[in-house]
Amino acid sequence: MRLLYIDDAGDYRITPNITSNNGDIVALYAILSHTWGQDEVAFADLAKRQDEWQQKAGFEKIRFCAEQARRHGLRYFWMAINSMFRWYRDAKRCYVYLSDVSSTAASDVANVGCNAISWDTAFRTSRWFTRGWTLQELVAPVAVEFYSREWVWLGDKASLELQLCDITGIPTSALCGTPLSHYSIAERESWAHNRQTKYEEDMAYSLLGIFDVSMTLNYGEGRQKAQRRLREEVQRAPHNEFTITFALSDVPEAQCFVARERELTGMRNMLSSDGSRRVVVLHGLGGIDKTQLAIAYAKRYSDQNSAICWLNIKDRTSIQQSFTKVARQILRQYPDASGISTLDLQRDHEKVTEAVKAWFSQAGNTRWLLVVPGLGNYYNKIVTV
After folding, report:
1. Which pLDDT score is estimated for 107?
2. R_g over Cα of the chain
3. The pTM is what?
4. b vs e for 37-75, b when ≥16 Cβ sit within 10 Å of the residue's Cβ?
5. Three-class DSSP category at 248
6. The predicted structure's pLDDT at residue 270
7. What is the spatial distance between Cα 168 and Cα 153, in angstroms, rounded to a whole number?
8. Which range has the worst mean pLDDT, 175-179, 284-288, 375-379?
9. Of 44, 42, 40, 18, nearest in space to 29 by CA
10. What is the pLDDT of residues 334-370, one digit of tens each?
């Protein structure tokens, strides 16, 4: 890797390769995260005369990054485009330059009134949160600081933790440094659902670091092929994963049922979780389609959960059969699942139940949905974590 710095004469220079034999970067540096705009400075421009590329509008971002790095005692800095996850992870600081958020409101953020509200609105709707590559630029670095287009400090990943969680849907624990391997494939994929990239293949390539896998970049192959190759690499990787296939083959489903959007939206808001356990109870008299509403919710948001399980609790035998079925689902995809693979599913009913509960309780197994219809003949219960 090569970094930028300013020499004693005030000129911008590029270092030689400062990566060690084992791939580590042997210098402390800051890195810039931004969205691509008009008249940006490309890497090829840096080899030209400085008075040429410093006339570009994008030079202001380089100057901003250099100045912030100097203030934090860092000589080296970099503004990357489609960069490696590890470059952001290893950076001492990451500066997020929000070109569409003004400091007019940011400078008055401590005051109560329209300015503070305007700043929050502009921040939440910033284009930066919609781009594919900025996902890793938020998650990977330890220290992420947000600045307005006038270089005014807005906050950092710690002080803006709740806003960032609300905007992106990323759990605060992930923002605070919990290893990404603790989150299911489905959950990590969901973080990119509302993002876009200039090149369609980058919707897959920008997630390589999120899943800690590598593959050859092949622009021109198309998004679908790139995503298929990504999934293949992820499945081959030795992750601590908890995804199991979801099916409603034996669940009584009414073909003509029309879901009530208000109820589904309310359920979604209540069950959207930061990793803690959430419970929604659907209560009411019999015959008002509580079970069908639960089915509709499970189907609509199936891609948001690593596992969805349906428990029949009519009686003790039904409960045992339900847990045995879940155990089979787990073993079908994870034959060596700890605590389950050694059990006799036909005889060890109590042990199977406890083993399945333990599987759901493992660290990192945080995106499962459990549907329990007919509990007490009064209500359906949906539990998620």
Report:
1. 46
2. 25
3. 0.62
4. eeebbeeebeeeeeeebeebebbebbebbbebbeeeebb
5. coil
6. 81
7. 20
8. 375-379
9. 18
10. 777 778 988 999 889 999 999 988 888 876 676 788 8
Task: Find out whether 204 and 185 touch, Cβ atoms under 8 Å.
Answer: no
Comparing 304 with 273, which gets the higher pLDDT?
304
3-state secondary structure (DSSP) of residue 110 = coil
- 76, 15 contact by CB (below 8 A): yes
Residues 6+ away with beta carbon under 8 Å from 59: 41, 53
Q: Please give the full DSSP string across 5-47, using - where no structure is assigned.
A: EE-TTS-EEE----B-TTS-B-S-EEEEE----TTPPPGGGGG
Q: Distance (Å, rounded) from C-alpha 136 to C-alpha 204?
A: 12
CB 7 within 8 A of CB 22: no
Q: How far is CA 136 from the centre of its chain?
A: 8
Is residue 172 scored above 70 in pLDDT?
yes
Report the distance separating Cα 134 and Cα 270, nearest Å: 27
Structure tokens at 238: 């030795």
CA distance 202 to 187: 19
Q: How far is CA 16 from CA 26, 64, 79, 130, 155, in A?
A: 12, 22, 16, 34, 33
Q: 155-169, 253-267, 315-329, 358-372 — which is least confidently predicted?
A: 253-267
